[in-house]
Amino acid sequence: MSTANQLALPTMGCGTWAWGNRLLWDYDPRMDDQLHAVFDLCVAYGVTLFDTGDSYGTGRLKGRSEELLGQFANTYRGSNADRICIATKLAAYPWRLTRSSMASACEGSARRLGRKVDLVQMHWSTANYAPWQEWALLDGLADLYDRGEVKAVGLSNYGPKRLQKVYQRFRDRGVPIATLQVQYSLLSTYPVSELNVKEICDELGIQLIAYSPLALGLLTGKYSANGPYPKGLRGFLCKQLFPAIDPLLDCLRAIARSRQKTMAQVALNWCIGKGAIPIPGAKTLEQAKQNIGALGWQLDAGEMAELDRVSESLDKQMVQNIFQTR
User: Fold this and answer.
1) For residues 153 and 170, what is the distance between their CA atoms, to the nearest angstrom?
2) How many domains does the chain have?
3) Residue 2 pLDDT > 80
4) What is the pLDDT of residue 162?
5) Which stretches make up the NADP-dependent oxidoreductase domain (predicted)?
6) Residue 26, domain member (yes or no)
7) Catalytic positions, please?
8) Among 12, 111, 261, 283, which has the highest number of CB atoms less than 10 A from its own CB?
9) Residue 318 maps to a domain
């Protein structure tokens, strides 16, 4: 385990974007018992970081992910209960313009969780479209740490230039940045390979968190150029990326076979080998078990290099988050 300030972070976490999202992930409240079982299994196996956001959910279900996490965390009595870390991201909505708006947002998250937020993160930077809005929100984020309302503060979708500016401002206030979360996988290497965020994070003592480490399921082997594809945005991505990503899937499949692992486990282990904490999602016990199978072993240098080589040779990669800054 690595320690960031007052935060004990595990080798891998669990992303909960799908918990409440009907639009992209077909959430249904009848899934809640299964999601509860997923939570319990993850914590029991040391996957104790759960990442959410105050915007997670669809329509009237906005905030549903936080509500479910609160219910599950507050009733859990098994092993590793004292290590549970709930990380939420506060959205930079256009109507959030003041320091106090972040305090109100965090209060709303804590209310839905039924407990304090452990790690509060800025969901995205407004630097690409409304840079004048951002500093007040960041100052409000730092205020939460100063007042002891959260254990730690993190950022999401920040590139190195913006990250260093925020780091300097927070350092002057005595507020450490614990984590930086970026889209990072074998199909989305841009933040690390081109922006060098991992090097900057290492220099500044910030832990890198990798969201979408399985590229919305494309690295699991579940989908192929022949289809069928999932509905909506993920189906659109499949159509855009297949068959260009077949060489990477073939490489993952070969390593998985030799290791007696799944393709998803190899993709997650690659993230871990890169020094990031992957936060794959899980809606079922089977998915949670598969994710947990990425722990307790390590790809060797040759396997890592081969995956890097094939990933870098691809003509196409995942589309980048529009809010990712440089």
Assistant:
1) 10
2) 1
3) no
4) 95
5) 12-311
6) yes
7) 56
8) 12
9) no
Report residue 138 CA to chain centroid gap.
20
pLDDT over 80 at 5, yes or no = no
Q: Are the CB atoms for 116 and 145 separated by under 8 Å?
A: no
- In single-letter form, the type of residue at position 212 comes to S
Q: How far is residue 120's CA from residue 109's CA, in Å, rounded to a whole number?
A: 10
User: Which residues span the domain enclosing 113?
Assistant: 2-313
The answer to whether 195 and 223 have CB atoms below 8 angstroms apart is no
Return the residue matching tokens 């396997």. 303
pLDDT, mean of residues 108-130: 96
CATH number at residue 295: 3.20.20.100
Q: How many CB atoms are located within 10 Å of the residue 73 CB?
A: 20
Q: Is the pLDDT of residue 164 over 80?
A: yes
pLDDT (tens digit, 9 = 90+) per residue, 92-116? 999 999 999 999 999 999 999 999 9
Identify whether 319 is part of a domain.
no
Does 45 have pLDDT greater than 60? yes
Residue 3 pLDDT: 39
Q: Give the mean model confidence (pLDDT) for residues 50-63.
A: 92
